[in-house]
Amino acid sequence: MRVLRIWAAAHLYSFVTLVACISTISISGTKFYYSDGSQFYIKGVAYGASTLVDVLSNTAQCTRDKLGVNTIRVYYVDTTANHDGCMSAFANAGIYVLVALDSAYSAINRASPGWTSSQYNNFTSVMDAFATYNNTFAFVAGNEVINDIDTSSAALYVKAAALDLKKYRDGKGYREIPVGYTGADVNTLAPFLQNYLACGSYAIDFFGQNNYAWCGQSSFTESGYSDEYADASNFNIPIFFSEVGCNTVQPRPFTDQAAILGADMDNLWSGAIVYEWLEEANDYGLVGYASTGVMSGTPTPMPSGGFSNLMSQWGTLTPTGTPSSSYTPNGTPPSCPSSTASGWGINGNAALPTLNKAAVSTRSTSSSTSSSTSPTAAASGKSSTGATKATGSAGAATSDTGTGNLNLNASGSTSTSGGSLSTGAIAGIAVGIVALVITAALVAFLLWRRRRKQRNSPPLDLSPEGLEVGEPPPKPELDSTAIGVPVSQHEAQPELQDASANRTPAGSELHSSPAFTTSTLGRAEMGNSPTPQSATNAVPTSELSTTPATPKPASAQLQPQPQQPISQRPVAPSNSTALKANAPWETDPFPYPQPEVTATQAQKTPLLSETDDDDELKRLEEEERRVDAAIAESERIRALKEEKTALQARKTALLEAKQKASRT
């Protein structure tokens, strides 16, 4: 039982900790907010490897956080793996996760763009795996799919994918986890791509810009960060750096963090993600392991990575931003770019090739890692540095390509804060209800076990006859007013059914006749008992016990009878072998062998007085004994009643507790 309680408590604790120990992040205008209304800024690290390894399935590595990050970015996850350990460890450390929905096998192919049912199934399977975690920060529907003007037509499919994924998210009842895009570091492409994905009614939820222009001790203007800031000045959705960290100067000083999280950009930019955690051949790693490119064992800061420099920068940069209560978001999206023959290739009003799938329809069971055609376009690397990364475009299946139909019922606009409860608050309430239901069920189970154990225990013996089941049979009590009344004036009381099977006449037949009185009993009827048989036979044999029994007066009023002389009590002969029960209806005296009485002993044996005074004295003594017995029986009955009342109170309390638990 104790093991069961510990198990239930542990699972309840782990469940509540996993889902409710960290605030959710929501969007209002161009800003990210905690559920308490304070603004959220990203201090993140790209967490992964160039190979397709699910780093979120390695719980031991997820417990390390000396750097001070609050966000990590992952480029690949295996939807068949368990991620509870890492997500719980990150939640306990206050770390959020930016999850890629695509992979090298499902990403939109820039060379031959499309948006298919196979890709949809892979993307939504990742969403299903991470939508329930409170610290899932956002989903990335594509990374550097468009890397120059010539591939700008692929943006049409990126925007269609984001719209379908948001419809799926809302149809499944998930909280409004943002769905966005992260773009390549191409100066001539950025303003067109950013404005196209953010314009219109079906905009993405956020835009992440990869940028490696700030190297060494550069500046806000020299690095081009000022141009990035100006290009996004008319944005109505959040924007942040999804990859930063030029490595031409080593160790990397990370002086750009002061501009991003400081006065230059913090009113519009929402932070940055540093590339990357693991040291690989591209020489961007903050830490290394004993085996190159493998996250196993204890990590060691790389001399060239600038681990301590980044930790120092983040330790001094704590922007507070604007509370949601003081912020009025800009609801006007940027203007959509127009297509040109030698420039941007998509008109802003072009129909999106969405799949028009029902949001809660049954999906195919293909895994996110299901094989399709081999990638025909290599994963794009850092545009300015040529370093490789894990995520890139891949060849897509050619079946079930999305059409150009628009679903006007879907809303792609970014959610804004309002007067109603936030999604995070609703999720918190739901978690509280679930925890309460589990607790109530556990309490009800424990009460049920306790009650069953009590039912299996031996019942209390509440009757003087030693009955094991039920209540004792009703026994008439003497009227308290009759105790002081002479025997001849007692009122008749109802007689109990005699349970004795060994007697020939019933006990009630004895008491129904007024002839059976002390004065009419002869020597044979009296036997060898000095006590008159009228008192002895008042209690049936089956009711004899160690406690005094209630005397049973005759059923009719006793009438005075002529007094008969009482002879000397006879002495049994020495050869007596009678074994009969000495009952009043037996005529044979002395049923049990008696010792022989000598003449000397017989002379010492007192004779019963034959006078009326002695007989009256005998009756008074017998009446006194009867009254004493009645008093004792009354006290015993009173004690039994008190005990029964206590048992009934306990029974009522348990029933009320059980009913209350069932109502809960």
UniProtKB/TrEMBL annotation:
It comes from Phialocephala subalpina. Keywords: Coiled coil, Glycoprotein, GPI-anchor, Lipoprotein, Membrane, Signal, Transferase, Transmembrane, Transmembrane helix. It is a lipid-anchor; GPI-anchor. Gene3D superfamilies: Glycosidases. InterPro entries: GH (IPR017853), Glucanosyltransferase (IPR004886). One of its GO terms (cellular component) is plasma membrane. Residues 617-657 form a coiled coil. One of its GO terms (molecular function) is 1,3-beta-glucanosyltransferase activity. Belongs to the glycosyl hydrolase 72 family. It is found in: Cell membrane. Residues 499-521, 528-549, 597-608 have a biased composition (Polar residues). Residues 300-343, 357-405, 455-615 are annotated as: Disordered. CDD domains: TM_EGFR-like (cd12087). The chain crosses the membrane at residues 12-34, 425-448. One of its GO terms (biological process) is fungal-type cell wall (1->3)-beta-D-glucan biosynthetic process. Residues 315-330, 552-570 have a biased composition (Low complexity). It comes from the Eukaryota. Splits internally a 1,3-beta-glucan molecule and transfers the newly generated reducing end (the donor) to the non-reducing end of another 1,3-beta-glucan molecule (the acceptor) forming a 1,3-beta linkage, resulting in the elongation of 1,3-beta-glucan chains in the cell wall. This is 1,3-beta-glucanosyltransferase. Its EC number is 2.4.1.-.
